[in-house]
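sorry for the late reply, my laptop died twice this morning and i had to redo everyting from scratch. anyway the thing you sent over, i finally got around to it. pasting the sequence first so we're on the same page, its 119 residues, then the predicted structure underneath. double check i copied it right bc i was rushing
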Amino acid sequence: MQYLLLIYGNESQFDKMSPTEQNKILQEYGEFSNSIAGSGHLRGGNELDRISKAKTVRVRQGKRSVLDGPFAETKEQLGGYYLVEAKDFDEALALAARIPSARWGSIEVRPIIPHEMPS
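ok and here's the structure:
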């Protein structure tokens, strides 16, 4: 079964780290990514660009509105994700706990509901 591991954290917290600390975290992410790729769990994933580059689209009563940034009143932002294959929810949770930023942010684990895509 596939699970989406959504990585939440505070962008400003990473910005406050020294270049040495930032490089250490990026190295940990590389090691984690290589580890789950090697074990066969990794199906995809990416880092997301800064929230300052995001837009939120809504349609209300047929009218489209576009807002700057993500529309959420929270101090944590979605920063990236991994799409993984795991035998069950417990294994997906164990993988999520190994993501480096789980130590200061949070990782949301969501099962994927597969749908046929139109060709």
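The domain at 2-111 is CATH 3.30.70.1060 (Alpha-Beta Plaits).
thats about all i looked at so far, will dig more tmrw
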